[in-house]
Amino acid sequence: MQVDRFERYWMWAASGMLVLFLGAIVITAVAGSAHPPSHVETVDPDTIRVAGEFATPGVAATADGGVTVTMRAEFYVFRPEVIRVPAGKPITFRITSPDVLHGFQIVGSNINLTVAPGYVSEATVTFTRLGEYLIVCNEYCGLAHHLMQGKLIVEARQ
Ligand SMILES: [Cu+2]
Asked: Count of H helices and E strands in the chain?
């Protein structure tokens, strides 16, 4: 079979790129411990309102000096609606939903989580700027989705 010289070059170049990119994926997966984002922690959405950590959402200090904010996103409110956290400390948000898919975005920060019923979404951030941050749901969740919002207040460290 006769293959044109330039076509052969391009076939080798395309094959080389395939090997290069596949190698990059394997190297980052093995050496860099990179893995696709996934939820590994599950909860029963039917019982989170009455049992477990999500039955009493709120802010709690952790032993390592940080803060854990346990939250529920549900039709059409975040619980708690107003959160007060200290600046300069790692804040870990743990949030789940008892009903449908919601979003949890803290405007002005890099926190943007999808909140799926049955799963716990978690992210940690340290706030350096004092003041109020708007929390919005950015996944359409129903008729009053546009009213679903909360407030985060970052206060000076006590
Ligand atoms: Cu929504």
From this structure: 1, 10
